Amino acid sequence: MTKTSITLILLLVACIVTGGFAAQKPGILPGAKEAQRPAEQETVFDDPLGRSTPQGTVFGFMKAASKGNDELALQYLDTKIKGAGAQKLIAGLQAILDYGFSGHLGILSTKPEGNLADNLPPFKERVGTVKTPSGSLDVLLQRVEGENGQLIWLFSKETLREVPEAYKEIGFHNIDAYLPEFLVKTAVLGFPLWRWLSVLLVIPVAFGLAVLITRLIVSLLMLFVFRTSKVQGERLIRRLTGPIRTLIFALALWVMSFLSQSVLMSNFWAYVAFTLTVVGGTWLCLRVIDVAFALKESRFGVTSSAKVSMVQLGRKLSKIMVVIVGALVVFHIAGINLPAVLAGLGIGGIAIAFAAQKTLENFFGGVMIISDQPIRVGDFCKAGDYVGHIENIGLRSTRIRTLKRTVVSIPNGQLALMSLENYAMRDKVLFRHTLRLRYETTPDQLRHVLAEIRKMLYEHSKVESPSARIRFIGLGNSSLDLDVFAYVLETEYEPFLHVQEDLLLRILDIVEASGTGLALPSQTTYVAGDSGLDAAKREKAIATVRQWRDQGKLPFPDFSPETIEEIDNQIEYPSSDSALRNKEKK
Fold first, then answer.
1. What are the φ/ψ torsions at residue 381 (nearest 5 degrees)?
2. Which stretches of 260-403 are DSSP H helices?
3. Phi-psi category of 26—alpha, beta or left, where left has phi over 0 and alpha has psi -120 to 50?
């Protein structure tokens, strides 16, 4: 037995159990629609026997009659007949309702005042019609005053007067008369045991038909998509097998509800069938959403990660909406007051919002990330201390595949507050290194290195020439420092590494060709005889400072403004032998 079959059987059992309980209490089945009443609705009186509404009266009578509880069933009839006559009247009314009743219990009025738009007096209610060989019998309820002074609905006297004659014309023989007494008298969930045994016989037949019809439909769909996508089409179609089988099985139960000779059983099977229809339809919608969005996502592929993220968000939101709608429909057919539920949700929404602050924060954070697109699925980025590729942007968290091949999940609420560095959105990659040359390098050697590296950067096809530069930036502790700055015309990291490797190798060639080398952290100790200080230069410097002092021109803490103005711009730059100066002369 497949997983789908097991799931369907468990689903059916749940529907049967809930349907059995639903049959104990009047509810509204699909198609129920009452006329709008201009007058205000009456205050609901909760009659212990359910006779405060037309639907409750019909349900209550059929349940009591099916259990053989004549004393209880008699309380739903507006008659004073007792004893054997009452038993015949109850049996006749039950028989004609089971045999020829054209109404539907699910659409009977659930209001104390009944249906005021049926062209009948306000104290009467037509619940259905029974076909007889001589014509038809309207089954009417009449609103009367009960023993406690409250208004209740009972089967009307005029209807009960016609029951014996209609019963004779139909010539109905109840199957209960031919069955063992324990099968008739023993009730489970309000139904005789023999009806449950019939269910055990009918369900396998209906399920078998559903399986055969599903295989036929799936085979036809396979033939339809075989020409376009052999592997993918078969996989996607097989995912629809379970929902289709459920819907066909529900259709078989609908047929059973129409063919059932019991009004209660017809209502019961209609409830189960409709519940399965809603569940199967919801299931089918979820599978169709998965298939449709999977096909859409495969069309984008890895070339449009932004659209892939939007597709994933749309799929999740669509599935959530389908499940919510399906749940609301199931609640409706179960008789739950949806406006009251929605009102309660509105009041409780505040408490839920406080209790689920982080969840809502993560949800809206995910929506903002997908809509604003600072990162997209497949991007290589840095988020906080984590660096890696974005694998998935969900409604609660975002998963990053790190360079260690681990997966990190970051809540969207936190991710929305982080400074995200998206490497995938670069238009070019920075190449910047500090070149350290030995102190033994002569100035002309240094000039040769600067000129050759600058020339190489300009010539390289993968380097952006306008921004490329190399400058002598300082005297380090153990090296002459040169700053190499350029943008490589690549957006992906792997191709950039190729270009960077080529540039570094060319720089090493230039350094070697210049007769110098790279500096290592070192300290040089010179051992030499001390020749002492130059006495003449010392005396000259001391004399110059004494002269400044005598003339009142000592340049401390700075030169006087007149002296600064006199010596301003005395050194030319570039020097007279510079290539730039020669270019200006030309």
1. -145, 175
2. 263-300, 305-333, 338-355, 357-372
3. beta
The residue type at 249: F
Helix intervals (H) in 143-240: 157-170, 181-185, 193-225, 230-238
User: What's the token pair of residue 431?
Assistant: 């190449």
Closest CA to 303 of 395, 376, 367: 376
In 40-83 the beta strands, taken as DSSP E runs, fall at: none
| Structure tokens that stand for 239 in this block | 């995912």
Distance, in Å, from the CA atom of 379 to the CA atom of 291, rounded to the nearest integer, reads: 25
Is residue 490 within 8 Å of 514, Cβ to Cβ? no
| Three-state DSSP class for residue 401 | strand
Q: Go through the domains of the chain in sequence order and give each one's CATH number.
A: 44-172 (no CATH), 195-336 (no CATH), 359-405 (no CATH), 429-513 (3.30.70.100), 539-585 (no CATH)
Give 1: exposed, middle or buried? Use CB within 10 Å, 0-12, 13-18, 19+.
exposed
What pLDDT tens digit does each residue of the chain (586 aa) get?
A: 454 554 544 455 455 444 444 444 444 444 444 433 444 445 555 778 888 888 788 878 877 877 778 788 888 888 888 888 888 888 778 777 776 555 555 566 777 887 777 778 888 888 777 777 777 777 888 888 877 778 888 888 888 888 887 777 766 555 555 566 666 666 666 556 666 676 677 677 777 777 787 777 777 766 666 655 544 556 666 777 777 778 777 777 776 665 555 565 666 667 777 888 888 888 888 887 877 777 666 665 544 455 566 666 677 778 888 888 888 777 776 666 666 666 665 655 555 555 556 666 666 666 676 666 777 787 888 888 888 888 888 767 888 898 888 988 888 777 877 778 888 888 899 999 999 999 888 988 998 999 999 899 999 999 998 889 999 999 998 899 999 999 999 988 889 999 999 999 999 999 999 999 998 887 767 677 777 778 888 888 888 889 988 888 888 777 788 887 887 777 676 777 777 666 655 5
- Asked, as a colleague might, if the bond just before 54 is cis with ω within 30 of 0, I would say no
3-state secondary structure 103-169: CCHHHCCCCCCCCCCCCCCCCEEEEEEEEECCEEEEEEEEEEECCCCCEEEEECHHHHHHHHHHHHH
Q: Nearest Cα to 410, choosing from 422, 428, 395, 398? A: 398
* Distance in angstroms (rounded) separating the CA atoms of residues 493 and 425: 11
SS (H, E, C) 265-291: HHHHHHHHHHHHHHHHHHHHHHHHHHH
Instruction: For residue 302, give every residue at least 6 positions away whose Cβ sits within 8 Å of its Cβ, in sequence order, or none.
Output: 378
